[in-house]
Input
Amino acid sequence: MKPAKSDKFKPVQLTPDEVALVRSLVLYEDAEILALNKPAGLSSQGGRGQVNTLDELLWAFAKPGKARPRLIHRLDRDTSGVILTAKTKPAAGFLGKALMKRSFSKTYQAIVTPGAPEPAKGVIDLPLRRDEQGREAFMRVCKADHPDAEAAVSRYRTLTAGEGAALLELEPETGRMHQLRVHLAAIGRPIAGDARYGGALMAAGRPVPRLMLHACALAFPHPGGGTKRLEAEPPADMQALIAALGLG
Output
């Protein structure tokens, strides 16, 4: 059985395959931080009954008698890309404060339909609110004076555009749940494969296997000084769709 979620220091027993998987995801590691290239389909935390979440898989990096690395931020289950952890408690505190101060710079790529936004580059400044429906949680665009409104700002620019689809670069200035997904849907360019917010399941006659959103770069102040920038190429399925749609 898995330990209770509140028991942060009781190791999760991982299979050799799980250990090999999470070790294969390492992008960068030093004495204070560990960065991974999370695959789509793996929950950061609190998964829906899957074998183990990324947070639990981090026990593969724990020293005997020590806690596992700590996640500094999350990615949606179906979003791939760079995710950062701290290996020490001081590093976790430093990075947590930097995140709260918005000292992190996150860059994403997304395939959207039915083409490039108009204008091709811009800022989406639309407040969001959380909407609970049973066990599901959604984010909705709302007016700024709504009692549950949270400010949300996203920058976007079109990298390439083809017939019926476009590849965008995205930079969220705030970190609301599902922010990029809801903002792009709000301007009529939902992310391909995003069934929750109206994304196309077919693009130019080709099936979209999943949410086409990838965290391709993360820049942040390093606990040891200076700024660190980490990058990850989009996974093979996204690159294949980019090529098939003529967006490469």
About this structure: The chain has a mean pLDDT of 93. The chain is about 15% helix and 30% strand. The radius of gyration is 19 Å. The longest strand covers residues 153-162.
